[in-house]
Amino acid sequence: MTSYVEERDGGYYLTGSRVSLDSIVHEFRNGSSAETIQQEFATQTLEQVYGAIAFYLAHRAQVDSSIDETQARAAALRGNQEPLPAELRQRLERARQDLHAKSN
Questions:
Q1: Is the pLDDT of residue 51 over 80?
Q2: Fewest C-beta in 10 Å: which of 38, 39, 68, 79?
Q3: Cβ-based neighbour number of residue 62 at 10 Å
């Protein structure tokens, strides 16, 4: 039997790839079909996406707990970050506006 998900570096990933199970689950929870998810993660086959969804459904409590822990760590890291200096923030905003103007 093929294993579609592996635990690695404190998280779950589709076997042999850098695609996190979290990203597949996020799309699945938002109502995306396996076919739509596979289009978003084109390096994965439809079989791998279905396998990841099946793994999630079979281990929902464990995976949800892992996702919650990851989100809590990310929130803590964001809370510990120094705010951007005003000058840098202004330069980034100007660059964003310039990019937006060029694309329209």
A1: yes
A2: 79
A3: 13
